[in-house]
Amino acid sequence: MEWYVIDTVVSPSVGVCFSCIRGFKNLKLTIWYQADIFLAPGSMIEPYDKGVLINGKVYPITVYNVTRYNKELWICMKEKSLCPGSQSINNKYCNIYSKCMVSICPFRLIRQDPEDKVTHGNF
Question: Transmembrane ranges (predicted)?
Fold first, then answer.
């Protein structure tokens, strides 16, 4: 069964991502997962033997939970996410990377430490 990613929120303090996905008959679910990839809005995903197919390529993923989508909860999660990439404004820099448990920034933000040294790449 194919699912389409509508939106994704990152929880940097625990390193978990939450994606709102839509599938058969417009059924919306929220998937809680951890992976080295990011389920970007617009991506098509499909469950696979050892992970998921994302736009036709297999990626490993650890799924913690799947729940029915709840609009109010989703809005709350987006508002309370400390990840600057999860915000609706276009951020270029990450100022919380020292607290972030996500190994690779899915938003490709540039980390900026408190001493204003800018570094690129993985966190």
Answer: none
